[in-house]
User: Fold this.
Amino acid sequence: MIRLITKSIVHRPVRNGALIISFAFIAASLFSGHFLVAGATDSVRQELSRLGADIIVVPAQYHAEGEAVLLRGEPSSFFFDSAIVGQVENVSGVAQAAPQIYIATMPADCCSALVQLIAIDPSRDFTIGPWLAQHREMPLGKDEIILGSQLVGDIGSTQYYYGHPFRVAGKLEPTGTGVDVSVFLRAEDARVMAAESVAMAYEPIEIPEGKISVVLIKVKNPAESTQVASRITDHVEGVRVITPQYLISTVATQLDATIRILDLAALVATLVSLPLIALISVMAANERMREIGMLRALGATQARIFYLISGEFVIIALAGGILGIAVSTVLLLSFQSYISVTVGVPLTVPAAGSFIVSALAAVLLTTGIGGVAAFFTAVRAARTEPYRAIRSGEL
Amino acid sequence: MSFNISNRSLLLAGALVILGALIVITPWYIFPVCEAKGVSSHSMSPMASVAGSDQSTGMSTGALMKCGYTARAEAAVGALVIIAGLALIALPNRISRKAVGIAGIGLGVVTALIPTILIGVCNAADAPCRIGTLPALIILGILTIVVGILVILVRNDPPAVAN
Assistant:
């Protein structure tokens, strides 16, 4: 029967090609939305896991900038008093507090990267320290830097920031977030760089004495991170906290409009194509009425005729669904950074599990639409008497 | 006037013309390179590379950026792809089909190689030419190769009936 169905599909390449493309569009719209949500959520999780922080404390007035650095890698320089570290450490439930200084570099031209320099305190740091211990087995040395995955530079090469030479000591794995375009260095080297920048750089940078940008917090019990976050807000003045849940909900809100548009496109495509596909299935069945009559006369059961007609559209829908998933996957992977910059959310390739589930769901839904559209035509064709079917094919 | 050309050849010739046009306009209009966005390295300060980031273009100041050269080269390659498509319509015989197919494959390879190896694009991870133009040209190059292969492989069907 499959051979008969395949022959019938191949026999009308233009009509069936157009149907496959419309099913591909429906599947691609459905799949893309889920890819974006899963990719953005996974990206935030990967970043927080890379930073190793349960909570990030930022100056209250620079909350938006802190969020932009973390989510989109939009470089920014902002500071608050380093005494905050001590106050945060005293809050119950806090296990470790690591201060960081954020310094944004200036663009050299449209094609040069805006880089976020993140200065760490090696004695307190738990962001780069464990990674270094795992990959290099020695701490970050004087004038050494670790590059985010998207930054250019070979390990061992020299790079200049604000006129100060640094040696590239390592390169991090991609996360799809701000970490990928960040450069990690020691706080004392950053202060030397800032002091030298007056003479060495075109535009000097100032890191005020006794100031930091953010405090990364590790809590004693990760299950209590929300309570610890609210305790920090209550006990420490002039700060805001960023938690993993908050970042994920921010990303979800930002993606909401895009997902709605994609889902709406899939809905409109379904509503428009469903009656069209049903009409085409009626036409196709009418064209083959004589063949159906002959098959029935030769002993084919009603069920067999039903499967023959509905199977053709299920296979077309299945092919369209697979094509849609394949094309959208290629486009989403190729333009991952472009989508991330345009929509303003971090994006990485979703975990294999959620990727496969989304793809299967989109293909099954598309196949279901094909089956539903051809159902009544298949039932009508199956119920037609052989004699009537043969006569209806006569001119 | 009637060209003795099959529907399949006409379809493939049309695909080559469209792909060629897309290769020409993509770096300037669809996914514009830095230069097309109105900024060139001529505006760069000589001190700029040490002002902040060392993650620069990798080009010396005062010169056209890599992506600008890529856009110009792709315009030439795209024009050749269009000519190959038109040649398939004008000379629809078996030998010219093979020649156009081989040319299509070669031009597709060059389309993908220009922004990746031969010239390249800007180094910056978030440069418009890297996140938009580069993947678009690679995809267009691959599609041109696929159409070139089809031009060689697909057998001629009966000539289209002129109405």
Summary: Residues 7-34+64-153 of chain B form one domain. Chain B has one domain: 7-34+64-153.
